[in-house]
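Weekly modeling sync, notes
Attendees: S.R. (lead), two postdocs, one rotation student

Agenda item 3: backlog of single-chain predictions. S.R. asked that every request posted to the team notebook include the full sequence so nobody has to chase files. The rotation student volunteered to paste the first one in as an example of the format we agreed on. Action items at the bottom.

Example entry:
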Amino acid sequence: MSTAIVHLRSALELAAAGVPVLPLRAGKAPFGNCRTCAKNVCGGRPNMKTAGPCHCPGVCHAWAAATTDPSVLTSPAWATAWRMAAAVAYHPGGSGVTVVDLDNAAAIAWARATLPATRTVATTRGEHWIYQGAMQSANAVRPGVDIKSLMAYARWLGPGTGATAALPAAVRALAVKQPSTARRVSQALAVPIKAQSGACPHRTPSYLDRGIAMAEQRITDASSAVHATVYRTFLAVLSTHGRCGCLTDTHVTRLFTAAQAKGETVRHCTDAWTNARTALGL
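Predicted structure, as returned to the notebook:
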């Protein structure tokens, strides 16, 4: 039996169980975007955090190509990919799970001492700890530790052993790097914001805090177009509070943290903040 048939059979079994799958090339790399979809110029799908193929008929958009549709998996457009595939991967977030990828013995020791026991899958160099529940993905949250869930893929290495535990708060907290955020916030605020003369009405907690809380909630509630929502929210906050000098690093860190919890990187937060300030002439 050819390797392509073995991989496809495994993929179809996983898809039947509701696990979105895709083929991997040698080196555990997904198939890249085609020219039509490069840099997402095709528009992708309305909510790129959900599982399922993009509008391109080929194996495209990497993790976002993951699907449970057998007609797609067995289509002529995917036949070449299966012939070239070195392994089968799946989209953890689309399966409703999170993979804590432990890359070495030290990382495994840390997990055993820190995290609740859960389903475990052996890897070439370490272990995958599987938890029930999806979250943002993040790399290098600790030495030898990556988190793979939404907008990510993981190699399928078997069902593993043990009962799947609920996703703990300790794992979610790993994806929010507040110390790093604070450093980038300071950089974003390197250009002084000119304050108006006289008393600032925004210094009252009932006004400023309510505004920041509403901005955080707006970002948290975004189910699609997160990039645009973050930028528009930053723009709204700066248009109201940006010229009087009442915003502090603490306020901006709260906004950055809310955006990161939706999957945004610190770099994108900093760029969005800078672009919003530029648009307002601050």
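Discussion: group reviewed the output briefly. The two ends are 65 Å apart (CA to CA).
Action items: rotation student to repeat for the remaining queue; S.R. to check formatting next week.
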